[in-house]
Design goal:
Helix 6 packs across helix 7. This protein is of the alpha/beta class. Helices cover 56% and strands 14% of the residues. It is built from nine helices and five strands; from the N terminus they run E-H-E-H-H-H-E-H-E-H-H-H-E-H. The protein has a five-stranded parallel beta sheet, with helices on both faces.
Length: 190
C-alpha cells in the first residue's frame, strides 16, 4: 500500500496533478477541498461549520478536518492506497493522521510538495476564480491570507516529514505534463 501526501500552497496544482496520479498509481484521491465542498453543498453540520472559516479565508480547525477525512478513509476499506490532497496542513493534523493510519496498520509513504512563486500562484487563483465561483479565489487579500496561514502552519510540515525521510519537493511551474513527470519520478523511486 502506498499513501502519498501531496501539498503546496493554494493554486500550486495539487488537484490537477492528483487526477493523473490517482489513475496511474491506483490511489483513492482524498481532497479536503472536495470533501469540504461536498459537505457544504449538502449542508452537513461539519460542512456548515467549515464554511464559516473558509469564507474568511481561514483554515478549517483540525478537529473538523480530521473527522471529515477519517470518514472518507473508512468509506474505502479496499483501497490500495490514498493520495491525501490538502491534508495534513499542520503538525497536529500530521500527528493525528499518523495515529489514525497506525490504527489501520498503515503509514504515510511519502510527502511531495509542489513549490511555486507566490505571485504566479496569486494570478492562477484569480484566473481560476473567474470560472470556479469560489469566493476565496476572487479576492487577492483572501488569497494572500491563505498563503500567510500556509506559511505559518503548513510550511513546518516540511521539517516534520524531512525528519522521517519522507519529504520531497517538486518544482510546480511548467506544463501539466512536465510536472506530472517530476511527480512520477519521485513516486517511482519510493
Amino acid at each position: 500500500m502506498i499513501n502519498i501526501v501531496l501539498f503546496g500552497k493554494p493554486g500550486a496544482g495539487k488537484g490537477t496533478q492528483a487526477e493523473f496520479l490517482k489513475g496511474k498509481y491506483n490511489l483513492t484521491h482524498l481532497s479536503t477541498g472536495d470533501i469540504f465542498r461536498y459537505n457544504i453543498k449538502n449542508a452537513t453540520e461539519l460542512g456548515m461549520l467549515a464554511k464559516t472559516y473558509m469564507d474568511k479565508g481561514d483554515l478549517v480547525p483540525d478537529e473538523v478536518t480530521i473527522q471529515m477525512l477519517q470518514s472518507e478513509v473508512d468509506k474505502n476499506p479496499q483501497s490500495s492506497g490514498f493520495l491525501f490532497d490538502g491534508f495534513p496542513r499542520t503538525i497536529a493534523q500530521a500527528e493525528a493522521l499518523d495515529s489514525f493510519l497506525v490504527s489501520k496498520n498503515q503509514s504515510i509513504t511519502a510527502t511531495i510538495a509542489l513549490e511555486a512563486n507566490d505571485e504566479i500562484l496569486v494570478q492562477r487563483l484569480l484566473e481560476r476564480g473567474k470560472t470556479s465561483g469560489r469566493p476565496d479565489d476572487q479576492d487577492e487579500e483572501k488569497i494572500r491570507n491563505r498563503y500567510d496561514e500556509y506559511n505559518q502552519k503548513t510550511a513546518p510540515l516540511m521539517n516534520y516529514y524531512q525528519a522521517q525521510g519522507k519529504f520531497h519537493a517538486v518544482n510546480g511551474i511548467g506544463s501539466i505534463e512536465e510536472i506530472t513527470k517530476r511527480l512520477s519520478a519521485v513516486i517511482d523511486s519510493l
